[in-house]
Specification:
With 173 residues, this protein is α/β, with parallel strands linked by helices. The protein has a single domain, classed as Collagenase (Catalytic Domain), CATH 3.40.390. 41% of the residues lie in helices and 13% in strands. It is built from six helices and four strands. Strands 1-2-4-3 form a four-stranded mixed β-sheet, covered by helices on one side. Helix 1 packs across helix 5 and helix 5 runs antiparallel to helix 6. The radius of gyration is 15 Å and the shape is globular.
């Protein structure tokens, strides 16, 4: 898998580079393979690690500004994916006031959705957009793993990836 970003936004450029570095990191794959299982998944962690590692998916990051109907639907989210564009992450410009590491973790989280869409024999999503009870799903756990590797702290606080109410939370992805 390779992640691309073709715009001039330094923080997102850095986050994209970080996300690609995670995808090249052997520790990332070994930690996934060490996991026993994921909630809401028909694939084992070993299979998911293999799918990520062997994927030739090109995952594109695009920016959006929540206006019009998007302002209502996506004003609280950091990013979203649209089934009409399954290999594209739409990153909310209003939610970039956070670390590049956090943005990279969001990119990894969302890339799992693209891979899940492509993996016809398996499913490994997290259901709805509530973050409650999702920490052991593949997108959440692997997104948080990316954050922990980038932070070099395996005890790091868990990030939240979906529909947040507060803009003040330091632990949002």
């Amino acid at each position: 898998m390779i992640i691309t970003f073709n715009d001039k936004q330094p923080k997102v450029e850095e986050a994209t580079e970080m996300a690609n570095s995670i995808l090249k990191n052997p520790v990332f794959y070994s930690k996934i393979r060490e996991k026993n299982n994921f909630d809401l998944s028909t694939a084992s962690p070993q299979i998911i690690a293999d799918l990520i590692e062997n994927s030739d998916l090109e995952f594109k990051v695009d920016l959006f500004y929540p206006s019009g109907w998007r302002a209502i639907k996506y004003r609280k989210t950091f990013a979203y994916m649209d089934h009409r564009f399954p290999n594209t992450l739409f990153l909310n410009l209003k939610k970039l006031n956070r670390s590049s590491r956090s943005i990279a973790a969001t990119i990894i989280h969302e890339s799992l959705h693209a891979l899940d869409h492509e993996a016809i024999d398996y499913t490994f999503g997290h259901g709805n957009n509530s973050s409650k009870g999702k920490s052991n799903t593949a997108p959440y756990w692997i997104g948080n793993l990316a954050n922990k590797i980038l932070k070099d702290d395996f005890d790091a606080e868990l990030l939240v990836f979906d529909q947040v109410e507060s803009d003040e939370n330091d632990y949002l992805a």
